[in-house]
Amino acid sequence: MTALLEVEDLRVAYGKIEAVKGISFSVDAGQVVTLIGTNGAGKTTTLRTLSGLLKPIGGRILFEGKPLANIPAHKIVALGLAHSPEGRHIFPRLTITENLLLGAYLRNDKAGIEKDIQRAYDLFPILGERRKQAAGTLSGGEQQMLAMGRALMSQPKLLMLDEPSMGLSPIMMQKIMETIVELKASGTTILLVEQNAQAALSLADQGHVMEIGKIVLSGTGADLLHDESVRKAYLGED
Amino acid sequence: MHELPQQLANGLILGAMYGLIAIGYTMVYGIIQLINFAHGEIFMIGGFGALTVYLWMPAGSNLLAIVPLMIIGGVICSVAISVAAERFAYRPLRTAPRLAPLITAIGLSLALQQAIWKWYPNATKDRPFPQFKGEAFDVFGAHIQRGDLFVLIAAPVCMIALGLFVSKTRSGRGMQATSQDPDTAKLMGINTDRIIVMAFAIGAAFAAVAAVAYGLKNGQIGFKMGFIMGLKAFTAAVLGGIGNIYGAMLGGVVLGVAESLATGYMSDVPGMDLFGGGAWKDVWAFVLLIVVLLLRPQGLLGERVADRA
Fold this sequence. Notes:
The complex is a heterodimer of chains A (238) and B (309). Chain A is of the alpha/beta class and 238 residues long.
């Protein structure tokens, strides 16, 4: 079976500073794969490169076997790759419904879009209650739900979530993580970037630990969760 | 000419023109944070496009019948020049420091003025623009010339159409998304380059409509007409809150009415008799701008920059 996403020796730089220094990993259909690591490890840079917002200086990205380099960001979505960015980036002055509709920007099936908006409301009932409200008035957790719901509106083959738990209360974080488990159960393939290593590893099939632009350790979620060095570095144990 | 209804009507007519031009400044600024100083010349070129169509028509044609054709001619010229400017002058500078496109815009503004001056037949002096003949209408004690009626109809029609486009259509939503967060807009699959072209094109089309209104009102157009009108319209856009389309129209009307009232009444204010009359109206327009910016830096309908997350 070929991987849905294959990243080979990917290198990305901001000017002369290399932020991602040759990483390789793959995501199979139906899997949840997580990249963990501290601030500045290059996780967000990796996702932004996969979705076309940044151009790599080297390496290959294959999505369903097709190379993604040189495809502009707005065309990558059409291939089935959705990106819920770090910091949520909902459109603050548009309503919740309008935000969701933007997630379906490239779709033309009106009935299907209606159905998926309803599905987003079922997944996150609070969004349904506030559908006419400007998204900027939502709490951080609610905005995160909206960002995830919006990314799902494109019916992606691969959903990339960047720090979905950032800045959330423990209860809200719990809710977001439960949603990821639900999405996984329904067959969604997910590439999850997280600083909360404990939460991410406990639901991931595969995990990769990034440190200053490189993958330093890879394994199944369970393996990494029990790895001595990971526990020391990321789970705050001595 | 001291009657209040007349002054208000004059202000409204002028303000509607400012507002139509201001839309172009505000839409482009709202999306790429560029003050397109060549927009006044895009307005001017719309006037010459409309005049050209008029001159093609057989003598003695009914003006009412050919005004729509003049609008189309003006719109085509303005949009073509504006879209070309975006593509060849501004787009290559999209990631350059902000000063570079700004200076480019000023240079483009001069170049367009000079091009008309040099190559449009007899454009070194003002050229006459067709006029509607006939009695003025009497509305609540104000005389409204037939030609002035044009902008009073065109401005609300354009605004309603734009409002519906922005809020109800997919491209309109894409436009709002691009102005709020361009990178995330790309993640939605929005071709932001196309949205930017669309913003330039809509602004240019509105400016061309304003130019037809200007010609019908003043009876002449000239290669320099874009300078002061552009400056006033830019002021209107800032006054209303730059980036906000309704603010642009509101700012235009407020500015037009304020100018008109200052012209008519300032000389009645004790001690201010030196500063009334038409010669001082531009001064009062900019005084108003300064006062509004002191009290409300984001403009009448603008949002604080901090809200732009």
